[in-house]
């Protein structure tokens, strides 16, 4: 009851003397996010037997840990407001790979261990004729399939959740681009997590991208990063250097400013 009284006092203060800080504190106490979609299309996304497979590593571990912590926080906030009857849902959306290399990546849906209502939803990639791609595709070669994948994901999300999500979180260049397209189509808040921006990993890649384009398709990837970073409502980063760089290097996200 004390929490309810405190929120009513905050609301009364806002109505009598509105200010940005007070409004931020008040809204920060409200459980406004019930359904979250997390995008991670590339690689083999699963809970076992996947680490070490192509394009599959720390990002998978990071997202699974993130999902468990996020669900716990969402449930805690709902409990604080006396809304235990409301069930928060988290959906990690990735690619369904028919030739799954002994993993569960050929299963459409999979519950995430250690959660109550968080799942991996897998959607296949299709070529321009609509045929499902059966084998793994490198993160550098996936760009022709992203737009169709986005449309398929939108239908699958609506089928599973029965409504639009409240938040879409992208991961890496491909996931951030899909998140941008979905957020734009569905009018949903978008968050980006870069993990690694390739042009900072390959020396002079932003200058010599033409020389590398036949192998890495940096023209597509850098464009995807530029679109996604400028479309996002907010970006999660690990270090200040990613934001602002240092005396000799521009920050990763500063370099995406448009």
Summarize the structure.
This protein is an alpha/beta fold and 258 residues long. Helices cover 42% and strands 14% of the residues.
Notable characteristics:
single chain; 258 residues; 9 helices; 42% helix
Give a description of the structure:
With 258 residues, this protein is α/β, with parallel strands linked by helices. The protein has helices at 2-16, 20-28, 58-80, 146-161, 172-186, 198-201, 209-216, 218-231, 240-244; strands at 35-39, 89-96, 109-111, 118-124, 167-171, 189-193, 234-236. Strands 3-4-2-1-5-6-7 form a 7-stranded mixed β-sheet, sandwiched between helices. The termini are far apart. The mean pLDDT is 90.
Helix share bin = 40-55%
Round the mean pLDDT to the nearest integer and report it: 90
Strand content: 5-15%
The helix-and-strand class reads alpha/beta
Largest sheet: 7 strands, mixed
DSSP summary, beta strand count: 7
- Element pattern in H and E: HHEHEEEHEHEHHHEH
The strands making up the biggest β-sheet line up spatially as 3-4-2-1-5-6-7
* Cα end-to-end separation: 48 Å
Rg is: 20 Å
| Low-pLDDT segments | none
Shape: globular
In DSSP terms, counting alpha (H) and pi (I) runs of 4 or more, how many helices? 9
């Amino acid at each position: 009851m004390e929490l309810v009284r405190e929120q009513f006092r905050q609301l009364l203060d806002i109505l009598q003397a509105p200010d940005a800080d007070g409004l931020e504190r008040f809204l920060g106490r409200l459980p406004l996010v019930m359904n979250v979609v997390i995008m991670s299309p590339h690689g083999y996304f699963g809970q076992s037997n996947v680490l070490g497979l192509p394009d599959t590593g720390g990002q998978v571990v990071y997202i699974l840990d993130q999902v468990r912590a996020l669900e716990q926080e969402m449930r805690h906030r709902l409990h604080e407001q006396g809304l235990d009857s409301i069930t928060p849902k988290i959906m990690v959306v990735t690619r369904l790979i028919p030739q799954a290399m002994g993993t569960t990546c050929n299963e459409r849906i999979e519950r995430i261990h250690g959660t109550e209502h968080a799942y991996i939803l897998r959607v296949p990639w299709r070529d321009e004729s609509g045929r499902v791609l059966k084998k793994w595709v490198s993160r550098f070669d996936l760009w022709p399939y992203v737009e169709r994948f986005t449309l398929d994901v939108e239908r699958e999300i609506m089928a599973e959740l029965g409504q639009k999500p409240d938040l879409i979180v992208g991961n890496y260049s491909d996931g951030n681009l899909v998140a941008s397209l979905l957020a734009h189509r569905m009018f949903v808040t978008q968050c980006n997590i870069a993990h690694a921006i390739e042009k900072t990993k390959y020396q002079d890649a932003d200058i010599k991208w033409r020389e590398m384009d036949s192998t890495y398709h940096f023209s597509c990837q850098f464009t995807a990063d530029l679109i996604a970073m400028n479309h996002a409502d907010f970006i999660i980063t690990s270090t200040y250097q990613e934001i602002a760089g240092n005396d000799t290097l521009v920050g990763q996200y500063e370099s995406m400013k448009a």
